[in-house]
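Example record used in the benchmark description.
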Amino acid sequence: MTDKCPWAYRSKLELDYHDSHWGFPLHDEEMLFEMLILETMQAGLSWTTILAKREAMKDAFDQFDPHIIKNYTDEKLADLLTDDRVIRNKLKIKATVSNAIAFLEVQEAHGTFDNYIWSFVDHTPIQTNFKNIEDVPNFSPLAETISKDLKKKGFKFIGPTTVYAFMQSIGMVNDHLTTCPIHKKAAAH
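Model output (structure tokens):
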């Protein structure tokens, strides 16, 4: 029997996410923005925490609609800081507004955010061949390049580690271990 990536066994939520989402190419604009927000919220926290709060955060953040989030008032931001459904970090919450504005500007400039972000990999997922979880990097030179470009465009809370996690989450890079049965499934998508 082949084993899945070890982190997938930490919780049922992570197993489901691992088996059906992580490493699979994602091109839906709404989901790309949602994953961007979730990854920025995750910085310094466990992914289990984010997955456990995902649906509640979606409700609190108006279904992660950048058109609504870009217009959040100081009052709305203050309400979010007291809302236990979300990660109550002032900088992360404020970053959602900056990121919504920047996301919409990228869409306008590039047609879609999908076209912009996937252009960094020539619209083809990077297939890795790691056998051990210790070999999977936390970031890459490409993630550093993308991070710098996103920051120039006004994105916040988007360092190379967050960008690399985002790349993994949307399938720009398939870091499933070669022993994981999902590795080939994600690569075939």
